[in-house]
């Protein structure tokens, strides 16, 4: 392992690279899915390989391979140098990586029960138990459940003396009930939509979600949604978002626009740019005084929790929004240096075969001081919305439209009738400046987003978002005719 | 790419280790290269070489699977053992349709040696020309030029062995000014067919035309779509209901509409894995030969594509559209889609529009309601008001919320020129023309 990595770095150094790093990753993923009582998938996959990134002649090059041999280390380092040479044919500004990074050490996700050490039957049993509970509710068309377990070992070294070793565990899972009828397709998911909730933890996390205990409830809700009243359309009203939807709102309208590579145009063609341009740093009122957002790669259970990022920069905490004021970015060594700062450790690659990009770590809305029941009681007229169903936002992260699986009318401080197909839309800073209440730590959950796409070739990142339910005043609701 | 015999030998190594069980192995080998640029410079330049072997192990109706990217004996042994353990732990799979039977596979073509080994310097120089053209206009170019090769082989203990190698090249460019942007894209399996400089000029022209955009009210407008927008319509219809699983689940736009005229009679849409105008593939990930499938003929919905599991449930035959095992829970999907062109140039589509919007690209489109394939998304990289048959002025971006099914019912004219476009992330190929649609619903504006 170390020998291969040293070989690649030595090769690059001897050929005159200004900087080089190498990451070797061994990923094991186990997935299982149950559909209508039948095991649909039970799969284990292993993927191992290494990637070499070099800065040479002013240009960047990256090459990767699944063949773990010393000869391949030479070939891959040589190819990375060739690619760097090709990059320098269309040169840009001189790259400044800032202070050298020479981190050393080991890190492992704290877990209680290693999910890979458990009998497969125990894990399938959890899904089957949840499926049986959903099956007791008449009127469902499809019942689904899934579990995902990941163990990723990663070694990083660079020409500045860094050498780190990390083992990251992730546990994900969820159930979904779908009902069809009345011209509608209605699904309810638990704990989160689009397949699963996911955290850095062991088997204990899957047990804590209590999938069987929530299965009948979501099944009943899916069936009830078929005949529920349609959410009002084209009105402006107060909304309270469930914690899972707040997490999605943070991810899309805060997490992405604070990526400094987007701000500097590096992602312009694909992911887009950002409205949070650098002159706004420290002076722009992003949200109301109730809005406090932090990027922190040290938070327990977050999918953005690790020891070091993929440039070897230690995990750390960065204030992003304080009392509504925009305070910080997610940065790499190169972009931080351009801003006159040092990296806050946000470079992450989705695997051994991808370069690190600026990605979210755990970008979280800090808890406020409301109990959810008190917040509803304090709302005269509005709509409660929970569990994301649809999300779309423009390329500067300004104009968004989100939909949720379920809504409830709020009248005179009480939760009333169920509403189907709720959607809301807004402009990011206007929306966050309408936030006047965030629920307290009792309602704050570390949500996982295991499906964040960015980059070319594409990368799927796993990011964390702590959030609690929050209220937003006078928001436009409903767009369907 | 490895020789066909080498791929067969590797697959047989896996199957031999499965001993008395039924088994299937999928081999995917890739060698991909991508040059990425932004701010008129190359900032990322990457290469990847990978191979994966996915084993399905079937014992007494129980199915387990495992995947590895190791091709040595130990790696294969471990993968087979994991698949065996997973099969042993599973109850019998009531939906398992059995392994594919041996078939005759046509040579699909679609492989170009030069594209497989395209030099990084040539990608860089093509990018350099576009960056210089943009800089001369004080504009900012960004995008990606990718080239690569991919080999897929499927073998099983029923005697199937199918092997295909293909190449793909894709050039995408976005050119931005202070308040405008333009984009162009082309894909091909021969990199030599990518007109990179022309694409750069196309994006620059749009960015130039788009300066000082005006705000317009949301509402219903007639629209003229570039092929880049048409691609999104076709792709979303595929993702949300062109496969039989969605129909069986009752969540497809096809449900209750098969056999009915629900689109304009001008709309003809089909999938054809054997057509080299797209990215051909002669068989699917189960080893079933791909059939040409008419999805929509003269506006009438004919039906979905099938894999073996959905075909068994529906009492139909597989059309050869199984996805890879790690995506099979989504059901089958089309992969090489064609929308028949019309006879009008894009300029004629604009000239025939009294008042409407010319839109060059959609962005971040997401499903709002499945049964009507109602989608929300944004315009991006060039929107223009059409007045009396001419582009009157550029327009700021708009949000739409619109049934794509209804949009295709309101098609008035199709463009004569088609373009092959590969969908980012999924790799799906679409061969599509420009469109003129009578009405399209815009529900918001952005700044």
Question: Can you tell me about this structure?
Answer:
The complex is a heterodimer of chains A (481) and B (447). By secondary structure, chain A is an alpha+beta fold. Chain A has 2 domains: 2-227, PmbA/TldD fold (2-Layer Sandwich); 230-477, no CATH class. Helix content of chain A is 22%, strand content 40%. Chain A has 10 helices and 24 strands. Chain A has helices at 2-14, 70-87, 120-135, 203-209, 211-225, 243-255, 260-263, 333-338, 372-377, 428-433, and strands spanning 19-35, 38-56, 59-65, 104-108, 142-158, 163-181, 184-190, 197-199, 229-230, 235-241, 293-296, 317-322, 325-326, 347-348, 357-358, 363-365, 381-393, 399-411, 414-420, 423-427, 435-438, 445-454, 459-467, 470-477. In chain A, the strands form 5 sheets. In chain A, strands 1, 2, 3, 4, 5, 6, 7 and 8 form an 8-stranded mixed β-sheet that branches. In chain A, α1 packs parallel to α2 (70-87) and α3 (120-135) runs parallel beside α5 (211-225). The longest helix of chain A is centred in the N-terminal third of the chain and has 18 residues, at 70-87. Chain A starts with a helix and ends with a strand. Chain B is an alpha+beta fold and 447 residues long. Chain B has 2 domains: 4-209, PmbA/TldD fold (2-Layer Sandwich); 219-445, no CATH class. In chain B, 23% of the residues lie in helices and 38% in strands. Chain B has helices spanning 4-17, 73-89, 113-116, 120-136, 196-209, 227-239, 244-249, 308-314, 346-351, 404-409, and strands at 22-38, 41-59, 62-68, 140-156, 161-176, 181-188, 219-225, 269-271, 293-297, 300-301, 336-339, 355-359, 362-369, 374-379, 383-387, 390-394, 398-403, 411-422, 429-445. In chain B, β15 and β16 (390-394) form a beta hairpin. The longest helix of chain B is centred in the N-terminal third of the chain and has 17 residues, at 73-89. The radius of gyration of chain B is 23 Å and the shape is globular. The termini of chain B are far apart. The model of chain B has no long low-confidence stretch (mean pLDDT 97). Classes of the chains: A alpha+beta (481), B alpha+beta (447). Chains A and B meet through β1, β2, β3, α2 and α3 of A and β1, β2, β3, α2 and α4 of B.
